[in-house]
């Protein structure tokens, strides 16, 4: 029988910002999917504002960015997680070549990539940077980086400059794909000869503000959460370009208040898509058809305020929501047949959670 125990990693603001409960840094807990109980394991508080982290389960390494707005250049740090001992050991860190670093990912070709939101001016001001990873998990010096100087979106209050918000490698390993909220673009780069070479660009709906995205497991479709417009865009990927198939709201009909889309994930079986929305404080649910298109099934209250991040457990049984402004991780059970969410169990109080990731080693 498979274990019901899941490891949960939480990144939080621990140096600046208001919170009911101060953030811890990187917190590690276990979550039992049978009892729905969280148990603290360890905390790494020797890192500044780890607002986004990525766990590489194959190597048991954790990579976390330090998002500190006043810094002209942020950092990305590496930790080794020892499951048996329940410890996080700091390995090293590197500069991110940009300000307000907000995303990190381990790529299929064994590199690390970061996205810099770039709030303010000054410093190296790169939108994306790529690093080699050593066999021990340490981060090498940057291999390549790129800045964005494209036409800006129409929302002067949010799109006054490039704001790269996430980066992932395409499933075929050919490109690094960067979502830029400020320029309304998804930009694809090839890593060639120590340089990031711009290959193609998808132009989003003006004012959409693409933030995060997820690839379907078949590699043919991309689902984009647009922060400003509070929409989800379905894109077809053919190995050389992205083509829009569909764009749907994340909100119920009649809701007109300005909201901010945040996170987006597919269920492990690829049948349902979920996206979180701040201000409306909800999780939108969609069914996924064989042709990649979506049907909006409705929204579920997030159980708190400002659901910046959420994670679906590898089994698909539960969805964990990090509500930033209510200092909580809220648990939802997930119906595998209908995709519906039901709040269950006790809410975990944890200071200023900005990122939650549930993994099985």
List keywords for this structure.
361 residues, mainly beta, 4-stranded antiparallel β-sheet, globular
Number of strands: 28
Number of H/I helices:
0
Distance between the termini: 15 Å
Overall mean pLDDT stands at 97
Q: What is the helix content?
A: under 10%
The run of helices and strands is: EEEEEEEEEEEEEEEEEEEEEEEEEEEE
- Calculate Rg over CA atoms: 19 Å
Strand adjacency order, main sheet: 3-2-1-28
Q: Tell me the overall shape.
A: globular
Q: Name the structural class.
A: mainly beta
% residues in beta strands:
over 45%
The description of the largest β-sheet is: 4 strands, antiparallel
Low-confidence stretches: none
Please state the oligomeric state of the protein chains shown. single chain
Describe this entry's structure for a reader:
The structure is a single chain. By secondary structure, this protein is mostly beta strands. The protein has a domain at 1-43 and 305-361. 0% of the residues lie in helices and 53% in strands. It contains no helices and 28 strands. It has strands at 5-12, 26-32, 37-44, 52-56, 61-66, 75-82, 87-95, 101-106, 111-116, 128-132, 144-146, 164-169, 176-180, 185-192, 195-203, 210-215, 221-226, 231-237, 242-249, 260-266, 272-278, 282-288, 294-301, 307-312, 318-323, 328-334, 341-349, 353-359. The strands form seven sheets. It has a four-stranded antiparallel beta sheet, with no helix packed on it. A hairpin with a 5-residue loop joins β24 (307-312) and β25. It starts with a strand and ends with a strand. The model has no long low-confidence stretch (mean pLDDT 97).
